Structures are given as structure tokens and as C-alpha cells.
């Protein structure tokens, strides 16, 4: 078969990463922090119900949990609850570590010339120390103040693509929750799931994951499956 000497292969897809539970191992610290905050506010919520909402923004999570327990909060009460969560999570921050293979994965993408960015629903102050531990303090980043709506709305992924100067439809989104993947579908990006957030493989696939891997190190071993190869 003849080939066109002038053919140039398409560039590798840009990758957009969730942070909590995808690149760093902190899902259960967030669960316990929310449970403590809710308990202090007089609401005893089983941890499994909290876990099922991790991946949403704090405001959406509070709305969802209070709806399930049959109560409502004023805006001030909801904001106070989020502050309690932030304080409780801060007490555990030193225990947060990168997930296996996460720093190596980001370094490999950079080596290959693959553009990537991180989209988090946390504030820049919360994200900064985590990026230091990942070894990417100056990573292209979208945080809570950069978007009007958090996941499962597509805004974080759309903003991440814009930060890289590419269209979201050409990106691969990597996340650990169904909320990440629902948002990816709404952004018309390809979704890849990781099992590191506690969601099952079938749940992630139903939410739109094209592939599901154990953790960042597993994804690193299978980069070719998501169209990433060394630059020529």
C-alpha cells in the first residue's frame, strides 16, 4: 500500500486530570473530614453515603447529602459546613501522598511532549502543597475559582482544555469518580477511569469510561491504549 510522503500523524491527545483520588491518595481523608464536619453540625451521615458524593464540589455535595437526610441548610450554614470540612481535612493533609506512578506518569507525558493539565474543585491554596508533592508545582491548573460550576458540569474540563489551547473534544479526561466521567461526556471528551476513588469498574464504564485502569502506574504502562506514544 502506498503512503503519502507528506503525511504527518496527528498530535497526541491532550490529557486532563482530576486531582483528588486520581493523582493523590486522599479520597478517604475527604470522607472522614466531611463526616466530622457533618457530625459537628448535628448531622450523622453514614460514611458510605458521603463517599458516593466525593468528586462533586463541596457545595453540591452538601446539597446532595442534606437532601438525603431530609433537611435543608441556609447558605450561611452550608458555607460553615464547608469551612468545617476544610479545617478537618487540613488536620489530615500531611498523610496525603501521590498515588503509585502519578509523578512518573506526568513526567512521561512531559517527556513525550503531550500537553496535560489538572482540574480540581479545590482552592489554589489547597492544591499548591499537593502539586509540590507530585513534583509539578507549576502545572497548568484549573481550580474552583476558575469556573462557575463544578463536576458533574463540564466546566472544569472545558476550562482545562482552554488553558492548553485545545478543544475539549480532542482531549482525554482521567478521573476516579462517576462525576468526573459524566462531566467528560458532557464536554465531549474521551473518558478514562481509575479505580483509586473506590468506584467499581462497571460504574465507571457506565458513566462513560472508554478504559479503566487500577491506578496511575497502570495507566502509565498502557499509554498506547489512549493514543500516547513517544514523539518522533
Structure, described:
The protein has 232 residues and is α/β, with parallel strands linked by helices. Helix content is 43%, strand content 10%. The protein has ten helices and six strands. It has helices at 27-40, 47-51, 58-68, 75-90, 102-112, 124-134, 155-164, 178-186, 201-206, 216-221; strands spanning 15-17, 116-119, 141-142, 172-175, 190-194, 209-213. A six-stranded parallel beta sheet has the order 3-2-1-4-5-6, sandwiched between helices. 43% of the residues are buried.
Q: Kindly report how far apart the N and C termini lie.
A: 22 Å
What gross morphology would you assign? elongated
How many strand units? 6
What CATH calls the topology of the largest domain is Rossmann fold
CATH class of the largest domain: Alpha Beta
Q: Give me the strand/helix succession.
A: EHHHHHEHEHEHEHEH
Q: Indicate the CATH architecture of the largest domain.
A: 3-Layer(aba) Sandwich
